């Protein structure tokens, strides 16, 4: 399996499809998943002539299950190591959920010429946990409950969590069991320890300053019925902090909309990349 080894000896697995001369798009997955969550998008964009790359974050998927470094800054350092190793230039970086936070911090830090555009999909930005500066955020007690479930009941929790993740618990929405099991499979492949610490990484990292530093074109995509990272506290606020950012919100769409509504998401991302 293709991988790089970081400075702390962590192996980061990645997929790299398409011509090396094509315009690169790098995908960043959400918690607690893997690069497999982007398969539909990667197939779509490689067939459009792009080079597509996606990695498994440390502690996730096929990457090393490390006891340390399960925090946003180290996640981004791993992305820097991978993009340097692959020498990605003028790449489009697309992040979902936790991956959206990872993209925001990476793009804010990236050297000139590395990034051409960014797309934040159902992203945890600008700051997920409820606080004085984010009164509409997710209450810490809810995040603590996720920690407890990961620590004591991970397998069942991951299966149950797919219901609000994809809005399969909404009246009139057809439940797709294979999609639920694919989410569960990805989650259970990763490290319980990394996933436990990853909750703080995605919910307690403040991205306000990162968003303000971004100077490349950014597209923010968010479902208006996102039960995991609610639109009003995330996508709607994120676009206000990035100069010139575009926002598309989707009535009724869930947190996992790249899977449930791939056609709409792919179309809007492609239009943005080509613009």
From TrEMBL:
InterPro entries per UniProt: AB_hydrolase (IPR050471), AB_hydrolase_1 (IPR000073), AB_hydrolase_fold (IPR029058), Epox_hydrolase-like (IPR000639)
The keyword Lyase appears for this protein: no
Residues annotated as domain AB hydrolase-1: 24-257
UniProt KW keywords: Oxidoreductase, Peroxidase
Molecular-function GO terms, alphabetical: peroxidase activity
Record family assignment: Belongs to the AB hydrolase superfamily. Bacterial non-heme haloperoxidase / perhydrolase family.
Protein name: Non-heme chloroperoxidase
């Amino acid at each position: 399996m293709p991988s790089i080894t970081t400075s702390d000896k962590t192996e980061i697995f990645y997929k790299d499809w398409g011509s090396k001369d094509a315009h690169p798009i790098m995908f960043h997955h959400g918690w607690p998943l893997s690069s497999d969550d982007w398969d539909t998008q990667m197939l779509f964009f490689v067939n459009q002539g792009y080079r597509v790359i996606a990695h498994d974050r440390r502690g996730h998927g096929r990457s090393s299950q490390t006891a340390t470094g399960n925090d946003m800054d180290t996640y981004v350092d791993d992305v820097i190591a991978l993009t340097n190793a692959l020498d990605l230039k003028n790449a489009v970086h697309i992040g979902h959920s936790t991956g959206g936070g990872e993209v925001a911090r990476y793009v804010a830090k990236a050297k000139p010429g590395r990034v051409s555009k960014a797309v934040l999909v159902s992203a945890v930005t600008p700051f997920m946990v409820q606080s004085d500066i984010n009164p509409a955020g997710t209450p810490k007690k809810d995040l603590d409950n996720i920690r407890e479930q990961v620590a004591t009941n991970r397998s069942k929790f991951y299966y149950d969590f797919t219901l609000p993740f994809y809005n399969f618990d909404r009246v009139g929405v057809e439940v797709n069991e294979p999609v639920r099991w694919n989410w569960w499979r990805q989650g259970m492949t990763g490290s319980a320890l990394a996933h436990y610490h990853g909750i703080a990484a995605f919910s307690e990292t403040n991205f306000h300053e990162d968003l303000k530093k971004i100077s490349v074109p950014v597209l923010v995509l968010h479902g208006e019925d996102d039960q995991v990272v609610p639109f009003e506290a995330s996508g709607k606020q994120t676009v206000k902090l990035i100069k010139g950012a575009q926002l598309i919100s989707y009535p009724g769409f869930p947190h996992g909309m790249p899977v449930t509504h791939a056609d709409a998401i792919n179309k809007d991302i492609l239009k943005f990349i080509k613009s």
